[in-house]
Amino acid sequence: MQLLSLGEVVSKISQQEAFHVIGQVADRLGYDCYVIGGYVRDLFLGRPTADIDIMVVGSGIRTAEEFARQTGRTQALSVFANFGTAQVKWHGMEIEFVGARRESYSHDSRKPIVEDGTLEDDLNRRDFTINAMGICLNEEKFGMLVDHFEGLYDLEDGIIRTPLDPDVTFSDDPLRMMRCVRFATQLNFFIDEETFDALISNRERIKIISQERITQELNKILLSKNPSKGFVDLERCGLLELILPEVAALEGKEMRNKQSHKDIFFHSLQVLDNVAHKSDNLWLRWAALLHDVGKPRCKAFSPTAGWTFHNHDFIGEKMVPSIFHRLKLPTDERMKYVKKLVGLHMRPIAIADEVVTDSAVRRLLFDAGNDVDDLMTLCESDITSRNELRKQHFIRNFQIVRQKLKDIEEKDRIRNFQPPVDGEEIMRIFGLKPCREVGLLKARIKDAILDGEIPNDHDAAYALMMETARNLGLSPQ
Ligand code: ATP
Ligand code: MG
Questions:
Q1: Is the Cα torsion angle 431, 437, 442, 445 positive or negative in sign?
Q2: Which residues are CB-neighbours of 47 under 8 A, at least 6 positions away?
Q3: pTM for this structure?
Q4: For residue 127, how far is its CA from the centre of ligand 1 (angstroms)?
Q5: Between these two residues, 307 and 166, which has the higher pLDDT value?
Q6: Distance 129 CA to ligand 2 centre (A)
Q7: What are the chain's domains?
Q8: How far is it, in rounded angstroms, from Cα 5 to Cα 15?
Q9: Is 186 in the pocket of ligand 1 (CB under 6 A)?
Q10: Over the stretch 365-384, which tens digit does the pLDDT of each residue have?
């Protein structure tokens, strides 16, 4: 891993007035003071940094108060007395101040008993060596690196490792297991062997962590550049089985009559990475991860047809709400979107497998509405066949589908389809109450438009309605 040098990092810190002021305030209070954790890690990596953490061996709150007063930012100060921390907003960032602490854990909670501690104590309680580096801000030692666990080497080598015994670190706060996989995925790092073994042996401890926090880490994994890595790690250590059993169940191949189906887990991850390279949309990524989640429930083998997964799109769509509920993911239109994409993911493939007709494309546009572009992205990502000819066939036909989608949308505006003659109008014209005939007339008009028999306009729809009504023995009032 190409890192910035310590000199470069210190010069970046030195350019920020705030760090000097913090150092002077700490000097006056008689505290040792460091910028620490993720901020330091990201500086070495040259990664955009989120928030700044300041650790003082003393009172974090007093340091923050003094800093806010000195810089005339008392308005931007928030004190969290219960946690012994304080924050100051600074040019769109948050500077968080905390006193060095020592933590001790009880078995059934990730919330430690916290006491004031030394620099050592504070570094010992951190999750990974790459997150346990600090740079001193006191004037005399400004820019001195504190790195008790050789985090800089690990950063250079691309290794995630806990500072202390990983069994203790993970058992104390099992959320660190999710963070471990998440950092390995975001940074494309390798999880050290001993640390990985501790993931395996402590996996059951994840049960004491709130679902919201687990899901937050899953979302961060999904939003990484190559999310598949995180899911492979989660699967290998056994955490996936515990937090997302429906996806873990996709793993494996089965053999019958010398025929094997492809491993749906690895296929899904490939689709996920493909989607991730095309779109930042978290929900499209969830749809990619879950698109085949219905397959294990409808897997069947017949000597003539081989392996089949009939209706897996439909079954998968039905599984999405229970997964979203359990994971405490939003159950609003974002869940509906994922459901819809999972439910429709076979449609463009079915269309592209044959001669692409206008009518099929129009119906797809009608069902997918504004999400049709995302659906196409998902389906194009779903072509992971190793058969080059077949792949090319689909890619060509998807281009035709996309072109037709564009042409038809321009011409017929199906995306947000509203029937040009609606139920109200039908009932008024024929003096009907809601009844079967109204439904028949509406369906006839919709089908005629989607099949391209008539254009999507009022006059054509009206004429067709009249003709159909006559055949049904209806006459206008
Ligand atoms: P990101 O902001 O990308 O999530 P980060 O490393 O900055 O990464 P934060 O949650 O902001 O993570 O935490 C800041 C620092 O606090 C970490 O770098 C780490 O040193 C420490 N830390 C955070 N959470 C834990 C934890 N659960 N156990 C031990 N140390 C932690
Ligand atoms: Mg952070």
A1: negative
A2: none
A3: 0.90
A4: 7
A5: 166
A6: 15
A7: 6-157 (3.30.460.10), 159-243 (1.10.110.30), 423-471 (no CATH)
A8: 16
A9: no
A10: 889 988 999 999 999 999 88
